[in-house]
Amino acid sequence: MDIQQLSRLSSHELCQLIHKIGHTPIQPLDCVVERHAHRIHLKLEGENPTGSMKDRTGYSLIMDIENRGLIQPGQTVIESTSGNLGVALAFLCKAKGYQFVAVIDPKTTQENSTKMQMLGATLEKVQTPDQNGGYLLTRLARVQQYCQQADYVWTNQYQNPANMRIHYMQTGPEIYEQMKGKVDVIFVPVSTGGSLAGIASFFREVSPSTKIIGVDAHGSVIFGTPAGTRKLTGIGSSQPSSFIHKGLYNDYIQVTDEEAFAMCRILQTYTNIIVGGSSGAVIAACMRYLTTVPDSGNIVCICADRGSNYESTIFNDEWIQEHHFHLPSDNFYHFSDTLSPPIITTRYDHRFMSEAQIS
Ligand SMILES: Cc1ncc(COP(=O)(O)O)c(C=O)c1O
C-alpha cells in the first residue's frame, strides 16, 4: 500500500493494518562470486505496511509504553529518528490516537519526511552535525529539551529493551521457520543494534552454530572504529549500541556509501529487487564475505527497507553526481581492483549465470 492510500485510512483501518506487520517474504537471489555460484536469501522487510523493518520495532515500543501505562490517547510520543522508525511511529500513533513528534536531520530522505507528515507527524529537524560525523547526538539533545519542556513520552529506541525483544520474539523465529531451521550465516544491518541483538539472541539459543555478521557503515562508531561522515541512512551510528555485546556477533563488516549505493542500483538494473541503502550494504558485505569464505552454506541477508524510500537519493543520478560518488557504470560490481567481479543474477534471470563460466 502506498502512502496516499495509507494516509486516507481511518484509525480503525490503520489498527487492522497493524496485524499485517511481520511475516515478510524471503526471496532467493543467485549470485556468482569469484566463479562460485551461490544462492543467498533476502529477507524483504520492505514488505511491512510502511515499508521497513521498523514497523516491528515501532509496534514493540508503542506496546511497551502502553503496557507500562505511560501514555493515554491525545498525548504526544516523541522519538529521534533518521526516518524509518519515524514513519512506523507516525502510522502507529495515528492508528492509536496519539500525537507524534519526529526529531529528524538533514539526511532524512524527502520520501520519509513526506510520509511522516502525511501520517500526521510533526517534524523537528536538527541542523548541526555531532562530533562523530552524524546527527544522532544532536537529535537526542533536542529530544531531551522537548521532554523537559512538556509532557512528552519518549519511546527511546536506543535503550528500550522492547526494541530488541520483538526481533527475538518475532523476526528471528520467522527466519528460522522460513529456512526450515537451516541457517548458517545471517547478515544484519546495525544502527541501534536492536534487530541484531534480538535475532542473534534467538539464534544463539536454537542454532548456536549460525554465524551472525553485523553490517555497519564506514564512519560509524558502533564497533569501536573511528568516526567519519557518511551518507548512508538507516545503518551506522554516532554512538555504540546498548543492545550489542561481543557474544552476539561473530564478525562485522563495514561498507562504504559507494559500495552500498552501487549494489542497490545493480540490483535494480539486473533483478526485480529494489531495496534501500542498508540492504545494498548488507548484500555488498555478503558478497565480500563470500570472496573469502565461499563455502558458507545457507545465507540470509536482512533487507531492512524498500528502495522506493530512496528515489530522490540513491536512485537519482543527479544526487549521485552532486555528492561526487563514483559508482561502477557497467554491469559488474567491483569491490576491489584485485578481485574478479561478482556477477549477480536472480532466480528469474539466468543470463549472467551462463556468462560467468561457473567452474
Ligand atoms: C533501513 C534500515 N536499516 C537498518 C536499520 C538498523 O536497525 P537497528 O536500529 O535495529 O539496528 C534501520 C534502523 O533504523 C533502518 O531503518
From TrEMBL:
Pfam families: PALP. Its cofactor is pyridoxal 5'-phosphate. CDD domains: CBS_like (cd01561). It comes from the Bacteria. The keyword Glycosyltransferase does not apply. This is N-(2-amino-2-carboxyethyl)-L-glutamate synthase. PANTHER family: CYSTATHIONINE BETA-SYNTHASE. Homodimer. The gene is sbnA.
